[in-house]
Amino acid sequence: MPGVLVFSEKDEFALDLLPKSAALAKQLEMELNVAILGPAAKSRATQYFARGASKAYISENELFTEFDAKVQSQALFEIAEVSQAEIMLLVSTKRGKEIASSLAQMLGAGCITNALDIKVEDSKLVASRYGLGGTTIVSEYIETPKKVIAVIPQTFETIEVKSSDGQVIDVDLKLDKPEVKVIERKERKRESVDIEKTDVLICVGLGLKQKEDLGLIQELANAVGGEIGCSRDLASSLGWLSEDRIVGMSGKRCKPKVVFSIGISGQSQHVAGIVGAKTIAAINNDKNAPIFRVADYGILADLYEAVPLLTKRLHNMLKS
Fold this sequence. Notes:
The chain is α/β, with parallel strands linked by helices. The chain has 2 domains: 3-170, 3-Layer(aba) Sandwich (Rossmann fold), CATH 3.40.50; 195-319, Rossmann fold (3-Layer(aba) Sandwich). The chain is 30% helix and 26% strand. It is built from 9 helices and 15 strands. It has helices at 11-27, 41-49, 69-83, 94-107, 214-224, 232-237, 268-271, 291-294, 303-319, and strands at 3-7, 31-37, 55-59, 85-91, 110-115, 117-121, 124-131, 136-141, 147-151, 167-170, 200-204, 227-230, 258-262, 279-284, 297-300. A 7-stranded parallel beta sheet has the order 5-9-4-1-2-3-10, sandwiched between helices. The longest helix has 17 residues, at 11-27.
């Protein structure tokens, strides 16, 4: 029976995707199946059945001990063939996007990544995602018989689904050994803060002249009870802030009540991470900065003059 196959390298992301996948599979009159790879795959299957999966195609092959996109893509290709999957739904993490493109090439399938929503229209599976630099949402569908779609993590709200008894199928995979060997792994330092959950987000970019000036931004964050986010360059290139604070297509996508965009030009990669905010206020000294096209409020000024005044004004307002 033709089916929908769901997979993520992280169980929690796949489980979040399952209820929506179950609804789509029902509309398309397809079977909902999952792929589970790696240690304890069989015991992990129970939680997938609780979210509506009919079958779990598993493999505890030792090659899954370390992540390798090529190996996982090859495994999913073989599982897709065995399960007669026509639609592959993945999660659009960095690794997920790498797997999606590779898997699509193996299957000869069309591929959409960073999907915001998926729905059935006229018997077609239609995916929506940001377009035109994050300023609009476009709808797309894949014309090839087999389809690969990667959805942004934690996109769908949790909905109740009917659990199933489920069937575990241990697949004998014919996998090539990885071409890359991991010789050392170092844990990346992470911060405990989750900027995706804050109501007020202060995003700062290369308009800031030196790392020490982050204190100026922190004072504003303290005044409004917000958290600091940043452009990719500020974290990845300069290392002034943790990469956990990057906002944009290569980082977090945030939907706070208010975003203060300070010293950020507003290129599409960044705007995609804040377009879901209810209100966007921008401070920039370039009147042609793209950020002003998406901002609800804009201040054309030097941030070193505007931010202290704004901080003082908001502090007094909120204090009273």
